[in-house]
Design goal:
Layout: H1 2-13, E1 19-21, E2 30-31, E3 36-38, H2 46-56, E4 81-90, E5 103-105, H3 111-119, E6 123-126, E7 141-151, E8 156-163, H4 170-182, H5 190-197, E9 212-218
Parallel strand pairs: 2-9, 4-5
Antiparallel strand pairs: 1-3, 4-8, 4-9, 6-7, 7-8
Helix pairs in contact: 1-2, 3-4
Length: 219
Amino acid sequence: MQATLAAALAEIAGGAVRVLGAGRTDAGVHAEGQVVAAAFETRLEAATLLRALNAHLPRDVAVVDCALAHDGFDPRREAKSKLYRYAVWNAPVASPLRRRRFHHVPWPVDVAAMKEAAAHLVGRHDFASFQAAGSGVTDTVRTLTRVELAGASGGELVFSLEGDGFLRHMVRNVVGTLLEIGGARRPPGSLRALLAARDRKQAGPTAPARGLTLVRVDY
C-alpha cells in the first residue's frame, strides 16, 4: 500500500515523494484507518488533492481524508493508540463470502473462556511471549486498554485490541493463543504465566493475516 500511494503522489507532485505510515502491516493484513504522512509542494487544496489521489489509485486502495499537518509530523511516533480488529468465522463449513477477511475455525469454541483469558491481557505488561521470533525490538512492554470479544460460537467472532503500541505479529499471536483456549487446549488462567514467561515458544500459533484489520490510529 505504501509504495502504491507513493507512486500516486509522485504522479501528482511531478517527482518522488517519501511516504511515512503509522505502522507497517504484513502482507494480507487490511487497513481501514491507516494514517500516512508525505511532504511535497502542491497548490491543490486538501479536498482537491483527495479526489486527485483517488483518481490515481487502484480500486483496492482509497484515501478517505486529507489534511495539512505540522512540519515534521511523524504518524508512527506521534500515535497515542491503535485499534485492531481480528475476524473469525466459526462454523463447520467455510464461508466463500468471508474468505478474504475472516480466519475460518471449523471446531466449536468456548467464547466465555476466551473472554476470561482476554481480561488478563488488559493493562501494562511485557508481551515478549506474543512477539514474532526474530524481531529486533528490545522493549516489549506495551499497554492494552481493550481486549474484547464479540459474537457467539458457530458464527462470526470479532476480537478488538486497542493499545499504545503493538509488537510484530502481536495481535495475531494473541488471537492464536485465545483460540487455543477456546478449543480447550489450555486454561484461561494460563495467560498470567505466559506473560511472565516472556517466551514466544510457549504461546499459541500465529493466526492468519487475512483476519486482521487496522481500524484506527489516534493522536
